[in-house]
Design a protein that fits this description.
Layout: E1 4-5, E2 8-9, H1 13-23, E3 28-31, H2 38-46, E4 52-55, H3 59-73, E5 77-81, H4 85-89, H5 91-100, E6 104-110, H6 127-130, E7 136-139, H7 146-158, E8 164-170, H8 171-175, E9 180-181, H9 195-207, E10 211-215, H10 217-221, H11 225-235, E11 239-241, H12 261-267, E12 270-274, E13 297-302, E14 316-319, H13 322-336, H14 342-363, H15 372-379, E15 388-392, H16 395-403, E16 412-413, H17 424-434, E17 440-445, H18 446-452, H19 456-461, E18 467-472, H20 477-487, H21 501-507, E19 511-515, H22 521-531, E20 535-540
Parallel strand pairs: 3-4, 3-5, 5-6, 6-8, 7-8, 10-11, 10-12, 12-13, 13-14, 15-16, 15-17, 17-18, 18-20, 19-20
Antiparallel strand pairs: 1-2, 2-9
Helix pairs in contact: 1-2, 1-7, 3-5, 3-17, 9-13, 11-13, 15-16
Bound molecules: thiamine diphosphate and magnesium ion.
The site of thiamine diphosphate has 19 residues, from helix 16, helix 18 and helix 20.
């Protein structure tokens, strides 16, 4: 077996890969069996202590679990996928990680080098398929290249801007032994921002009357959540959060104005966007212009040079380690002497209060069939501050985005800009493993549920209890509504009526129930939390209660 003695790895290449992954902080290997990757399993089993193998029923689940591990822990997650179809089944999750900046490493099996070109089983040249959706995709050609190649994979995945790395190893070389020098991961470097750029932005902020800060996923990914909260509180600047930035400003905080988003972004005079691309979720970086307001000036702060928007018209930008960026900015604005933003903040707070009052009505809706909002009316008060909430679905998850305001960062996983249905079950699996004492709640549209529910089997076998709540409107709701709007009719949007998704979970060894009475939602959620098994609450909801959407994201 592998030993790390005086920085030398011995044993077969799978042992090298596991030792290096562990040195980078990996604790779990998500996988579905295939002979091409047996050396990874042997490496995991024989490591001291063994690395936990978590095996699934579809490679998408393994890859989404690795992606979510990267999001939750900020250490790259590891998925091991067998050659050919195993790897191609993981492509969506890898693309999602690329879009969301999630650190993950996928190790693929690969047909043996000594047979290459002769037609061995699953002989597919995989890196060219993965290259467009990853930071790096390459073959580690020999056993002796595996330690340094895996080390590079984890280093690249974990450095700004984070993302997925794919490597594959020819089967014959994977089983081979080698000796490799390895002295552990390099220390993380932190890039300081350009001080002139920061001073320029500080001057814009000091001169602004109606500034807004937008905090996105990379604020969390870069470990800048404390610096971001400190900046908001010291300056008294109103903030909106999105993606994994949600919770950086805790739900209920007086400066969190997500519920006044339209007014803030539409009538603000300076929008400072931190750690998230200026994509469709942020009107491509064009703000202001609402109710006769002039266009807003825009500042983009990113974790690395390549993330600064190339398409938006920017009044300023800076990049670097986001804690350093935000701390430097706070100091510079304080020096420049910010204007008095309290009247602007008060106006936004009035809007937040009015929106919250309207929400309260919806959250308590007695409607029959059930309005999806009522589910959140029951769920939100039952969530602990450290809960992990995962959304996988269309309208049902959009409602969650509206009603769930996390109290802490790092506990909210939404589909993100790639928007791939089917990500949720793997994410819930990862959350259960890396946050063993937290509530884990997976919000599933009934359509989304169909992509991954078979992997409840994996949760059951590996004793990973999570609470699933299915908003079951018997339709692909987020597509049905827009198609109706565009054409006046819809096709390919209906699913079977009131399917018993809880029955699916029960037959796989979990538990669950169907709810049709709004008053029964809360007690059912309580039973789910206390069950200690994967539990699905299947709430039959009103297909007519579509999410009020102003954009299709295109
Ligand atoms: C893999 C994948 N296929 C298709 C889509 C397009 N799509 C986005 S939302 C949606 C409907 C989701 O339905 P459901 O999960 O039941 O949630 P609902 O909108 O009904 O609440 C579809 C099909 C997608 N985002 N991802
Ligand atoms: Mg649905």
């Amino acid at each position: 077996m592998t030993e790390i003695t005086s920085s030398t790895l011995t044993g077969h290449a799978g042992e090298h890969a596991v030792a290096v992954a562990r040195a980078h902080g990996v604790e779990h290997m998500f996988t579905l069996s295939g002979a091409h990757v047996f050396p990874m399993y042997d490496g995991a089993v024989k490591a001291d202590p063994p690395m936990r193998l978590v095996d699934v029923r579809h490679e998408q689940t393994a890859a989404f679990a690795a992606e979510a591990t990267g999001k939750l822990t900020r250490v790259p997650g590891l998925a091991v996928l067998t050659a050919g179809p195993g790897v191609t089944n993981g492509v969506s999750a890898i693309a999602q990680a690329q879009f969301a900046g999630s650190p993950m490493v996928v190790v693929g099996g690969r047909a043996p080098a000594n047979r290459w070109g002769t037609g061995s089983l699953q002989e597919l040249d995989q890196p060219p398929i993965l290259a467009p959706v990853s930071k790096l995709a390459r073959t580690l050609p020999t056993a002796g290249d595996v330690a340094s190649g895996i080390d590079e994979a984890f280093t690249v995945a974990a450095s700004s801007h984070r993302g997925p790395v794919f490597v594959d190893v020819p089967m014959d070389e994977f089983f081979n032994s080698a000796e490799s020098a390895y002295s552990g991961p390099a220390a993380r470097t932190r890039e300081a921002p350009d001080s002139d750029a920061i001073d320029k932005i500080a001057a814009l902020m000091a001169a602004a009357e109606r500034p807004v800060l937008v905090l996105g996923t990379d604020v969390w990914a870069d470990g800048a959540e404390e610096a971001a909260l400190a900046l908001v509180e010291s300056l008294g600047i109103p903030a909106i959060t999105n993606g994994m930035g949600r919770g950086v400003i805790p739900g209920g905080h007086p400066l969190l104005v997500t519920k006044a988003r339209g007014q803030a972004l539409g009538t603000g005079d300076l929008v400072v966007v931190v750690g998230t691309p200026l994509d469709f979720r942020l009107s491509y970086g064009s703000f202001g212009g609402k109710d006769g307001a002039p266009p807003a000036q825009v500042v983009h702060l990113a974790d690395s040079a390549g993330q600064v928007s190339g398409h938006a018209q920017l009044a300023g930008s800076a990049y670097g380690d986001l804690s350093l960026v935000l701390t430097a900015l706070g100091d510079a604005v304080a020096k420049a002497g910010p204007a008095d933003w309290r009247p602007w903040v008060s106006r936004l707070q009035e809007t937040v209060a009015a929106a919250s009052a309207r929400d309260t009505e919806l959250l308590g809706a007695e409607a029959d069939p059930i309005h999806p909002a009522r589910i959140y009316g029951e769920l939100v008060p039952r969530l602990a501050d450290d809960a992990v909430v995962i959304g996988d679905g269309g309208d049902f998850v959009s409602f969650a985005g509206k009603f769930v305001e996390p109290k802490r960062p790092g506990g909210w996983l939404d589909p993100g800009p790639y928007g791939c249905l089917g990500a949720g079950l793997g994410a819930a699996m990862a959350a259960r493993l890396v946050r063993p004492s937290s509530q884990v709640v997976l919000l599933l549209g009934d359509g989304a549920a169909g992509f991954s529910l078979m992997d409840v089997d994996s949760l059951v076998r590996q004793d990973l209890p999570v609470v699933m709540i299915c908003g079951n409107n018997s339709a692909w709701g987020l597509e049905k509504g827009p198609m109706q709007m565009l054409y006046g009719y819809d096709v390919a949007a209906d699913l079977a009526q009131q399917t018993s998704y809880d029955g699916v979970v029960r037959s796989l060894g979990g538990a669950g129930e169907t709810v049709t009475d709004p008053k029964e939602i809360g007690p059912a959620i309580d039973r789910a939390f206390s069950s200690g098994v994967p539990y699905l609450v299947n709430v039959i909801t009103d297909v007519e209660a579509a999410y009020p959407r102003s954009t299709f994201g295109i």
